Amino acid sequence: MDYFERRLDDKNRLTLPPELRDSLTDVVIARGFGQYLHMYPKNVWDKDIEQALVGDILDEKIADLNVQFRMGKIDVRPDSKQGRITLEQHLLDYAGIDRELVVVRAGKYWRILSKEMAEQSATKNP
Q1: Pairs from 41-49 (Cβ < 8 Å, separation ≥ 24)
Q2: 31 with 94: CB under 8 angstroms?
Q3: Contact 5/115 with Cβ under 8 angstroms?
Q4: CA-CA distance, 105 to 13, in Å (whole number)?
Q5: Residue 15: beta bridge partners?
Q6: Exposed, middle or buried: residue 2 (CB in 10 Å: 0-12, 13-18, 19+)?
Q7: What is the rounded distance in angstroms from the CA atom of residue 2 to the CA atom of residue 19?
Q8: What are phi and psi for residue 65, nearest 5 degrees?
Q9: N or C end of the chain: smaller count of CB under 10 Å?
Q10: Tens digits of residue pLDDT in 62-91
């Protein structure tokens, strides 16, 4: 499964599809490069992202990446009964997500974006 659409419930919870729950037992949600969020399996965050964020203490690019990915980052575990994760309001505000959203696989991680942003991307890149 590479794509799914959902509507957040009243508590800002995203229900993960049953097909993905085994691979997303612990996840990290962080700001993306644009007006969207990244959702990483925790093992991908620990192995790939943490390693990419290490560098020379005076390297401004590395510092900017650390700020980008760590500001507002949350670690969440889906509830075992329905596979729901809570998206904090500050992350939803950053991504411009109200209730309806789209989740698309981007290699080892997922991009979470508002339905409007997804539609704009689809018309821009048919």
Answers
A1: 41/108, 41/109, 42/75, 44/108, 44/109, 48/108
A2: yes
A3: yes
A4: 19
A5: 84
A6: exposed
A7: 11
A8: -65, -40
A9: C
A10: 999 999 999 999 999 999 889 999 999 999
Residue 9, CB-side half-sphere exposure with 13 Å CA sphere: 10
Give the whole-angstrom CA distance, residue 37 versus residue 39: 7
pLDDT on residue 57: 87
Mean pLDDT calculated for residue range 108-124: 87
Tell me how far apart the alpha carbons of residues 115 and 121 are, in angstroms, rounded to a whole number: 10
Collapsing DSSP to helix, strand or coil, 27 comes out as: strand
Give the chain's domains with CATH numbers. Answer: 3-124 (3.40.1550.20)
Q: What does the pLDDT look like over 22-41, one tens digit per residue?
A: 999 999 999 999 999 999 99
**pTM value?**
0.90
Looking at residues 4-12, what average pLDDT do you find?
Answer: 97
